Amino acid sequence: MKYVLDQEKIRPDLVRTIERLSGEDVRQCYQCGKCSAGCPIAADMDLPPNQVMRMLQLGLTDEALDSRTIWLCASCETCTTRCPREVDLAAVMDALRHEALRQGRKSPIRQIPFFNRTFLRLIKKYGRVFEMELIGRFNVGTLHFFKDVTKAPRLFFRGRLKLWPSFKGRKTARPAFQAVKNAQRHEPAEPPAADESAGNPTP
Ligand code: SF4
Ligand code: SF4
Q1: Is the pTM of this model over 0.85?
Q2: In this structure, are 156 and 91 located in the same domain?
């Protein structure tokens, strides 16, 4: 796909925010494409992982933040492991999701943030996921009431689906949620000031 570089769309300040959140320098990427070649989800992504990096190098944060890619990424870290420049691309994807949510952008695949929120809510409630409730809430929330119900009996008889939640781990989960809450409280409200030299295309 062809992209036209429009000065008004270039946001070096947001690139710096992504770098701060991920701890990575996007200029380290030299576009070898090894991350995309190994990514198990790349075929379904609108931007392969290396192109997400390229968009950030060009300062085109809207393209990265509005992509399906950041929501499809499964955080498997294959890209991170394969990168010859030791760029933690999985952390960059995480930072992009974080920033997209902070800005209130709508995910192009609405079920994914809904699933993530529901999953975390259950971890907070029980200390671990209760699959029966997760499936129920997800199916009702997405109006796909009978999605995957035929799989339930098989999972149940194999002991993979419990009828009642377990509260084991609730004590250990609570401090983790509290730590996230504290970290969010100390997050800067505004991204750092724009650096004019940042976000320019790499040579
Ligand atoms: S593997 Fe690393 S250097 Fe290569 S394109 Fe991906 S992020 Fe860039
Ligand atoms: S972490 Fe995300 S982008 Fe990287 S290989 Fe896994 S799914 Fe693909």
Answers
A1: no
A2: no
Q: How many CB atoms lie within 10 A of CB 71?
A: 19
Overall number of domains in the chain: 2
Q: Are residues 38 and 77 in the same domain?
A: yes
pLDDT, tens digit (0-9, with 9 covering 90-100), for 27-54: 999 999 999 999 999 999 999 999 999 9
Core vs surface per residue 27-59: b (16+ CB within 10 A) or e? bebeeeebbbeebeebeebebbbbbbbbbbbbb
Interval between CA 42 and ligand 1 midpoint (Å): 14
Domain interval for residue 123: 111-185
- What separation in Å is there between the alpha carbon of 68 and the centre of ligand 2? 13
Rounded Cα gap, residues 170 and 18, in angstroms: 32
Residue 56: CB within 6 Å of ligand 1? Answer: no
Asked if residue 163 and residue 90 are part of one domain, the reply reads no
Instruction: State which of 89, 92, 93, 202 you would mutate to test the pocket of ligand 1, scoring each by most atoms of that ligand within 8 A of its C-beta.
Output: 89
For position 86, which CATH number holds?
1.10.1060.10
pLDDT, tens digit (0-9, with 9 covering 90-100), for 164-197: 888 888 888 888 888 988 887 877 665 544 443 3
